[in-house]
Amino acid sequence: MNRDSINWAGPMPAVTTSFKADLSIDEAGFIANIERLYDAGATGMVVAGCTGEFWALSFEERAHLAKLAVAASAGRGPVILGTGAVREDEVIDQIHAAKAVGADGVLVLPPYFAMVTDDEIVAHFAAVDAQSVLPIVLYNIPACAVNAITPEVADRAADLPNVVAIKESSGDWNNFHATLTRVRDRIRVFCGPSSVFGVPATLAGADGLIDCFPNVWAPGCLDLWHATKAGRLDEAWALQRHGERMTDVFTSDGLTLYPATKAVMNHIGVPGGGHMRPPYRDLSGALLDRLIDDVTTLSLPRAKSA
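Predicted structure:
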């Protein structure tokens, strides 16, 4: 396999996992969010990634979410399942479970928490690749995973038989661009923080965008891609500036991205928000009040039914 083995491209949201008050999965909200995002211009879905709180899900729940996403997608785009785990055998088991429910690909992190060498990261990917039954998207998010997929590691892993893409979410433009330059001839490159540099990433040749923000800002965040590809650059850069402001609001002064995202989804009345599973907690009190006040200045659209 290589980049030509798939046709995945464009803005593919990393979808939230909606939880009810009893912390069970809100299947209706999850499905409705996926359908809404396709209607707004999404080209695929990434399920049970960081935005989907993979660490709070059992392996069985992750596979079930993939099954729901496949049905909700109804052929409109690929479904890629997050397989975050430290042990290779667990990642491999999840890949087989993803295949069984009809997922199109899997998102594979380096080992996390345990600090490992570049050689060990490549060995981890090679061991997973050797038993994979689905195309693999490598996932670089060192701020969370500790271990980074450097451009050099990406270059080595890009030659593995089942690796077809990388989601580059370092948030470092130089790392993103160096990775893009080194591997784009063999695997597809998706930009993670599109709210920060989705437009320049698209102009530089990224194959698509995989981001959290479409959950709370659609079609705007999806249109970062569509407007750029269509040559509507004034519109695209205006959206980029809006995304930068949103990123600052959602991640500063005591706020973190995923609880803030769900809180705002609930506020504007779109499906897919709901509650956080521990170790996260729902926002409340002064933090929530300040977030909502700041979001009001961003003029995010409210749901028609809200």
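Summary: The chain has a mean pLDDT of 96.
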